[in-house]
Amino acid sequence: MRETIDWQPARLRAVKDLTPDIRLFEIEPERFQPPTPGSNISIVVQVEGRPDTRSYSVVGPCTDGVYRIAVKLLPDSRGGSAYMHRLQPGARLTISAPGNHFELARHRPEYLLIAGGIGITPIYSMALALADAGAEFRLLYGCRTRRDLAFGEELATRLGERLQVFIDEEGGRVDLPAEIARLAPGGELYVCGPIGMLEAVKRAWQESGRPVDGLRFETFGNSGRYAAEPFTVRIPRLGKEVVVARTQSMLDALEAAGVDMIFDCRRGECGLCAVRILAADGTVDHRDVFFSEPQKAANTHLCTCVSRVVKGSITIDTADRTV
Question: Which pLDDT belongs to residue 78?
């Protein structure tokens, strides 16, 4: 059940290195549609000689009719970032119009924005939009080292004291309970970063007693506790045994093997692609933000779009009733 995407041709106008492993891409579409803060575009990439798609947050308002995205080159990626970093100006691309699963609500009394690493890409756009609107907000931006701070200088210039930077190697840590306590009643928190950060923010938000719908988040599926490696998935009812490559998601592998899957976000957020775990002789690396920590600990289900297995295999059942 693939969503219908209106693909269009585009041209890569320019590239610029923001950090040693983050590159900014300027993309001229055939038909420009203005993005909203939190928007992303999908791009057709080539992974091991096969076409695939990746979704990247649009950076900034793009008032000149050019989409900008920032892509981190990940050594443990499924291949999309490596493909993007090989592209040169003038390359022809196939892209989608902007979509948004991470909308910025307007007219809240205050906003708290939190970004970890490459998670700054959608948060950057939100911060600029809120600054232009004269809204009350703060941005907390965490990275491992100072050289990892993409857009650091631009944000410091635009935001001033509304920006706080936390560097891991310098001992910087965000006091989440304290920061949430400072947020005005009715204020909202927007966060994008690795899975550990998201889980910590969700836990602190829940413990604060604030309304569930006041927390909004986006994640990226490469963020796990273990390095990706190949693993085997068995579906006894269908008589199938599927090998998931290191550079492939479990969802993609199941679809390629003819298993009819249901999905939407492909980022571990909606839970539509979840399957039931019958047995696992390996460790399940839950990379989603859909299931709660107790549900992940119970190990009865996993989201196939982002979660993986290491040091073993897994046996599952799916919603496929074709046999």
Answer: 64
